[in-house]
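Dear U.,

For the methods section draft, I wanted the exact inputs and outputs in one place so we can describe them consistently. I've listed the two proteins in the order they'll appear in the manuscript figures. Please don't edit the token lines directly; just add comments below if something needs changing.

First protein:
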Amino acid sequence: MIHATEAKQLSRAASRLLFTHLDFATKPNGQYPSEDFQKVLARSSFDGEFVHTTAKELQLARNEDIDLQQRSPLAKSLLYHLRGLSPDAINAQFDGVRTATFAHARRQRAFTRRVDVALDIHEWLYYGSDDTPHVCAVNPDRGTNLAYAFVTLCIVDPAVRFTLASESVEANDSRTLRESIRRLIGTAREFVEINRVYCDRGFYRVPLVETFVELDLEFVVRAPQTVGVKRALDAHDTSSFVTDYEMVRKNPPTGRVPVTLVVVPHRTRDDDSFCLVTNCAVSKDAAEPLAEAYRRRWGIETSYRKIGEFLPRTSSPTFAVRLFEFLFAVAMYNLWILVCLFLAEQREFTDRPAVSTALFRLFVLSVPDG
């Protein structure tokens, strides 16, 4: 049985862990204290709302007389301070949050064994000019082909689904992603031993697979049905098979990397195949279990979707604002996972989180605003 009082206390403690590491570079005689900025960001994070809206909500709760048709002075002050922070300073602050979060997780014996992880690219869509610094070209989606892009590395064990590392990228080319992967894996290895890395089709590239090999990682990558993969499908008269395969890059810099191609029937589409490439030792009998492990570990809940539940809305083109708010969402997500970890042994239903994100929000925001 999980008692609401204990869950609330843990949630409030988690939020304090975050806020004690944040520095908005406010002055002692400033119009608004850091505590106001913290409340606005927390509200925006949980509600998926613009900071100008949540700032007005906070000011109205205090019975402040504000002009509803003008931008909130509290929000303007917050954004002014965020724009004044350097990316290095922002990253350093949230590195401290991550270290503190994982220190608490270790006390709960969260990382006593090797973990499976997933790499993902989070695209925060942008509707401004393509000349905006740090904006990345992406596939068209919801009326734009621009986004602030972040590569994330998340543990995929349902019990400890922390986001271990994240990094902004300004391009989606293989060279950029290759260097980012190296840094993310290096950061992750400071906290855990990695068993296997799972990736979607966006990572099906010779240079990226070569990087996994160089980093001595077991990998499983979803394979699109390229010309080579289709040729392998045509060469087999069974719907499920395992075969040696070679990924080839014909454009400079050219490259080849040997892998194992694993094919099983698609679960929802008749006459279609579900394809993976891996460097794991896989027998034909192990093909379906590997595919199911990929579906289960990748599909249940990726960091991409869950981080989005904690992401404030903004139209700001300033990279510092975007970076701060994205890392704030990652930190909030990890702290929710931490609270669930502390309460895990008290769960009656093991197929759901100990505390829902909605209740976590309620507990964190339950302190009076007056």
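Second protein (the one for the lower panel):
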Amino acid sequence: MQGTVDGFSYGLVTPVTAYVMACLGAALGLRCITRSLRNEQSWKPGWLALGATSIGCGIWTMHFIAMIGFQVEESRLRYDVGLTILSLGVAILVVGLGVFAVGRYGASTKALLAAGTFTGLGVAVMHYVGMAAIRLNGSLRYDAVTVGLSVAIAIVAATAALWAAVTIRGFLASLGASLIMGIAVTGMHYTGMAAVSVHLHSKGGSWAGGSAYSLLLPMLIGPVIFLVLAGVVVMFDPLLVLGDGDWSGPAARRGPSGAPSRTRSGAPSRTPSSAPSRAPSGAPYRAPARWSGQPDSYFEAPADTGRRTHNRGSSPPRPR
């Protein structure tokens, strides 16, 4: 007997909330990864780990918020606790391995394709491990073509995420990339859900596990709190909020020896610090000359007398 599957039992509430969480995790992760790769003074392992965990928690939270809206009319749904926790670990682990691989080997095409493929396959595994945690009076079946499409979307989304992490610097650019990543990850989830069909058993049975409300909602609290704390870290780090950070500031625009930056024409920029000094080193300070109104003449107060000197070009005064 075929079961009636409803993936939107709460309307647009669950897909929109899931999309927001995916975007939040992607935005925080991209900023943290950018911080680690672009600033040589940062503690790279820590920032990479924070970014990978943020993206992994965002993907996992998106998946199970969307699963709250998944129902089978003829059967109640429960979830295996162990597999649900395992899916969270898989999401963080595979994203972390992909992020560290790109951080270690750079943004070359081979590194991005290898890390993106591995991470995308890991995200797909996370999704289907989470689906395997479902317990109901029946069995889940999948359409192979649709499953393959969802895996392809996951690989493309993961590769694009890693490319954005090592390429995009500005805050607004990272925000736009996170919105696109949210669409890709959420689209992957609902594409995978479109492949699901339920074959009901003839007799009702009992099975262990927690319901969506008793298990998923409490488990979602932890990743959501982590994302909030990661957001606080990002907000209080000016290099992450302002965008480019040290790598685009005045220090980065100076040459290796501290020389001032040059203009587009090649001439050095005129700054107060680079302006030449008229007085020789160690000479006493002299006030600016006062214009006398005559061509090529000036009055100057000598250091030892209060008398004014004659105009330039005239004979010096005779000693008395």
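Candidate sentences for the figure legend, describing the second protein: The first strand starts at residue 5 and ends at 6. The two ends are 129 Å apart (CA to CA).

Thanks,
Y.
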